[in-house]
Every structure is written in structure tokens, then in C-alpha cells.
Amino acid sequence: MFGMTLSFYGLQAILGTFIPLFSGGFRTSLFMIFTICSIPCAIAAFILYYWNKEHIFNSILYSLPVGALAAEAIVIFIYFLGHHTFLFQLLMDVIGVLIFLFMFYKKAKSKKLFLIASVISALVFYFVFPW
Q1: DSSP letter string, the chain
Q2: With CB atoms counted within 10 Å of each terminal CB, which end of the chain scores lower, N or C?
Q3: What local confidence, expressed as pLDDT, does residue 1 receive?
Q4: Same-domain check for residues 20 and 61
Q5: For the segment 80-130, what is each residue's pLDDT rounded down to a tens digit?
Q6: With 0-12 CB in 10 A as exposed, 13-18 as middle and 19+ as buried, what is 3?
Q7: CA gyration radius for the chain?
């Protein structure tokens, strides 16, 4: 994505010197915004590339959605105890955690690492993200 951003805005600035339709110079603010947006895209591409590889790293990657959904289920459960609302969301989150845990446990190369990483990722998602 960074290459596309650089080539798009760079080519627009180069062509703007010869063709009036593309005039306006180099748009630094848009270039910076899209460059910053390309960083999460690169991280997501890295995760998706190693997702189904036969590597021990895939056990950690499989644990990320399980941990995130488990953290959400914990937060919804705490909220449910206090306010007696969001029962359906709580049930769907718990069912989703169980389904993801079952599906990804079978696919994970290292089962022990998957379970440990699931607990750690649930704790990280719970404490890092503001609920």
C-alpha cells in the first residue's frame, strides 16, 4: 500500500510539471495519512500470510480472535451483572468463544502454545483496549 501511495502521489507531482491536468504539486498531507494507514494494512497482511502456514507461529495467530472475543465476553458479563442488560450479546460472545476455541484448537500446530496465547491475548485485549 505504501508503494501504491508513493507511486500515485509521486507520479501526480511528476506529471503535474508537464500536464496541467495533474498540476497541484506533491500533496504531503494526503501522502502522510495514507502512509500511516498502510502500517496496519502491513501488519494485517503479515498475520494473514502466516495464518495457515505450517509454522508454530500460527498457534499464536489463531489465539488472537479467541482472546479478543473472550475479553469482550468478560466485559459484557461484568456489565450484565451490574445492569442486567445485553444477555443476547453475552450468549453470542460465549458461544462464539467456544466455537472459535474448538475450530482453531484443531488447526493450531502447538496446542499448548495456542491455549497459553489465548489466555494471554484475552488479558491483553481486556486491559489494553478501553471498554
Answers
A1: -HHHHHHHHHHHHHHHTT-GGG-S---HHHHHHHHHHHHHHHHHHHHHHHHSSSSTHHHHHHHHHHHHHHHHHHHHHHHHHHH---HHHHHHHHHHHHHHHHHHHHH-S-HHHHHHHHHHHHHHHHHHS--
A2: C
A3: 58
A4: no
A5: 999 999 899 999 999 999 999 999 999 888 999 999 999 999 999 999 987
A6: exposed
A7: 22
Question: How far apart, in Å, are the Cα atoms of 49 and each of 10, 37, 42, 45?
Answer: 29, 19, 10, 6
Domain that holds residue 98: 54-130
Q: 106 and 77, same structural domain?
A: yes
* CB contact at 8 A, 59 and 109: yes
Q: pTM (2 decimals)?
A: 0.65
Residues 66 and 29 reside in one and the same domain: no
